[in-house]
Amino acid sequence: MIANMIKRTKMPVALTIAGSDSGGGAGIQADLKTFAALGVHGASAIACLTAQNPRHVLGIEPASPRMLLRQIQAVFGELHPAAVKTGMLFSAANVRTVAGFFRTQKSETRNPKLVVDPVMVSTSGARLLELAAMKSLKEELLPLAALVTPNLDEAEILTGHRPASVEEMRDATREIYSRFGCAALIKGGHLNHSPVVTGRRSRGGGRDAVDIFFDGKTELLLSAPFVKGVCTHGTGCTYSAAICAALALGYDLPRAVEIGKNFITSAIINSYRIGKYFALAHVSPATRNKSN
């Protein structure tokens, strides 16, 4: 009787298609924690298994394209995700599998917004995307995306040159939009900012971590104090997952990117120690000022 009186909350669904991180700091694990923190039900399709910890990637084993597709189909068959993000896909076959699914999905009435985090190289230097998969990522997956979220190294791979200033980051977002037809968010957290460009120092004498977003109409310069002395694992995964969650909640893309920036900034500031390393704190700041 009491169970019948409970009013059930309806949650939107977000799907992550990425690699599993045995250390729990990045990949599927980070994405699901982010979705939960932002009030979204997280579904997952595991593109590859990794044996890794905050220091090393010890091994990678991709899922078969058939099994990856079956996972995605299982989620879409009953859960109807409102937004999807991709992370580490690793193989060309898996990139093509994901692209093929979403190419078909574009003709459906329920067409979720797709965020592509082009995971290519780990913080420790391990290659996380096969060279043969680069072409498929550029030619097949990015044209289907609503947003791509490269760091500076990944922006270099996508454009052929590494942004060395905020102005060059602005140019690169426009180049990516022109080449691939999707919005771009270039993450410049490790850029050596010039005071002429950023115009100010953050508290503690450090520079700001500046990201640039461009979607063909709107440009955002997203700035937060660079947190010194904290080396975290999984920031790119968490950032893109927060944007994906915000899209699933119904925010438009520029506002979703702002929510993602606030979330990752909070996660870094409130990071905690695990052994000799730091882990991001997946605690949600308020998602206010909903725009649609």
The main sheet comes to: 9 strands, mixed
Q: Write the CATH architecture name.
A: 3-Layer(aba) Sandwich
Poorly predicted runs of 5 or more residues: 193-206, 287-292
Report the C-alpha radius of gyration, rounded. Answer: 18 Å
* CATH class division: Alpha Beta
- SSE string, helices as H and strands as E: HEHEEHEHEHEHHEHEEHHEE
What's the CATH H-level homologous superfamily? Answer: Ribokinase
- Count of extended strands: 11
**CATH topology descriptor:** UDP-N-acetylmuramoyl-L-alanine:D-glutamate ligase
Briefly note the structural class of the backbone: alpha/beta
Strand order of the largest sheet: 3-2-1-4-5-6-7-8-9
Report the principal-axis shape. globular
Instruction: Provide a count of the helices.
Output: 10
Mean pLDDT: 86
Number of domains: 1
Distance between the termini: 38 Å
What is the percent of helical residues?
A: 25-40%
